[in-house]
Amino acid sequence: MEKFKKLSKLHKYGAAISFLAMEIFALIIFSFGDNFILYSSLSIALMVLLILFNIRQINVDGVSSIAFLIFPLFLYVLLSALGIYSRAHVLWGDFSTAEIVFIPLGLLPICFSGYLLAIDKTFDIKIFLIVIYGALALLTVINMICNYVNFGMFYTVLYKGYRMYYAGEVSDLTVENFAYVLHGLKFVEVKMSQYVLIPALLLTSSISLLFISPKEHKKTFITYAGFTFVGLFALVTIPTLLGGIAIGIIIVIDGLILLIRKFNKIYKPVKVFVYILLVLIILGVLVFALAHQEKSSIANTIANNGTLNRLFNNNSYAEMYSPSVTNLFFDNFFGNYTIRPLLDPVPETKLTNSFLFDNITTSGVIGALAFIIFLIVGFRGFRRYILNSKDEMSSKVTLLAFSIFFVIFSALFVDRDYALFYRVIRPMYMTGPFFILVFILTYVTAKEYFQRPKKEAVTSNSEVSVNA
Fold it and tell me: Is residue 72 reached through a cis peptide bond, with omega within 30 degrees of 0 on the bond before it?
């Protein structure tokens, strides 16, 4: 008891820990490369420190409020770490055993840190966002300079169709389809999706400009204007179709958030549309999977129908995604990977440019479903968070824009086997931005619980006592 009282006195130093948390988040978002063990270790250290310095504020009911978020995440990362995919890549030398161990040990602490910082009164989400976007801006500038030095501005247009040689080896992709990015402590040639992701994430800061008064908060407005300019400049001076699509997605996200904020009546139609879209996507993936079950009569029915066959079999996208779902419900339910047996591997099932199918490959059907549930539960907390939280509106909408864009872009375009002349494979759950997404969704869920109107909290508590 005395030890607990001594620990409870540490809360007065919470400001120092909050500052340290900002530095850790900056390192995590900056480490787009091979520092997975580093920022996993940092997330563990952060959680331990936050527990020690906030132990008197930890609320059992508050922890239970994020249980529906933690459980599917726990299931997802555990299946990802123990799956055939991870174990095979350890044998091949792509991952180390330590990295596999740190998949759950890194992501679960960063999730719990979201709860702990939500109850920490010294933590300022405004500072968090400036730190995150500041790190992204620095990384964007570094990558821009490297590409300007090697190729120059607008090289994707000027040298279209050219290829590059490295140690006598010609690149698989033409120059307009790849770029240099800082990967760990060196610059690596990567597919363009990996380059575009960084300034595009930075460009999501543009939503703040619509909610910050330039007269009342001049410095903050200029800061976010700078972030927006750097992100847009990086995408425009190295023009690509993918960069244009990223800008378009961000404009749509910003526009919808602004419209919902100005005209609350359109929230329900947008919500219904999103749910219908999610159902259609899930049904589409399910039918696509059924079309590639070699032992299923449904697959033969789809193959014999001209329209369905073209839609689910004979097109470039079907060829890209089909290895992830082939015989999914018969042989590869717990992870689709063409390694049988594990110690005698045959050519691998490559990751696609969509986490929807990559999660099936790395984590199996159960893991993929757990991840979808995690996202749904996490994003559902945003509405109450925006309505109830005392955080500034500019911070709320920026967290939302960052999260939505990262999920959409990762579901459509980001290739996780992205290096040209090196073998670098990083599934979504082993990247810095995903750590930040996990933190944001947990923070939003926990913050909404602790700052909801008192009447609602009293009602819910009374209901619990009656049920008990």
Answer: no
